[in-house]
Write the structure tokens for this entry.
Amino acid sequence: MNSRGKFIVFEGTDGSGKSTQLRLLAKYFKEKNIPCYVTHEPTDSPFGAILRACMNGRIDADERTIALLFAADRMDHIQNSVNGIRAKLDAGFTVLCDRYYFSSFAYNGGFVPLEWVTELNRPAMELLRADLTIYLDVDPEEGMRRVGRRSEKERYETLEQQKRIREKYFEVFKQFGDNENIAVVKSRQSKEETQERLRRLADELFGGTL
Ligand code: TYD
């Protein structure tokens, strides 16, 4: 393993099917003998653990604290010398990451000034941009129906908030899209059809060599 891997990010509102599609894409890479590392934000590090506690209400924190914590968790995620994203890419792994800085812009940027959140995340943007960001676009009503089947409700999981977050995603894609490679994929067709579309995008990213 010597050439640098690709960095692929999944974004979307809640219930968009990100985790399922990410898992299926990782399976595809495995079949194609592409070394692949799967990760997510908030991470499983101690920084991410604090965030999870904030998201499910076990820790009370205001929106500014949360935005700061996400930026800190992300910096560790990028830079950690043991299991950080850059270390994995350098070791030749293609990294599939569930959420990255666009989640901060869309979720946290709706509650505290967006300019402030983007400043917090500028170091991350300068250090590491995704080779491909896949936005799985689900109708917020449908997303909420899917989330409704899960047991616990988390912060931001109301229909009004989800609608606002979706709008924010499109706003920030417009604002920051120039230096990015963003693919918006409708997540309303079947799981298999959506995955087929993602596999074609992956093929393109690898220059048709898969
Ligand atoms: P999600 O990705 O849906 O994971 P799970 O299925 O484990 O709940 O949830 C993560 C939550 O964190 C989601 O509500 C979005 C939020 N979030 C932010 O607010 N800002 C961020 O920067 C990130 C990465 C996530």
Remarks:
- Strands lie at 7-11, 36-40, 94-98, 132-137, 182-186.
- The chain has one domain: 7-205.
- The longest helix spans residues 159-176.
- Residues 14, 41-42, 55, 70, 98-99, 103-104, 107-108, 154, 156 surround thymidine-5'-diphosphate (CB under 6 Å).
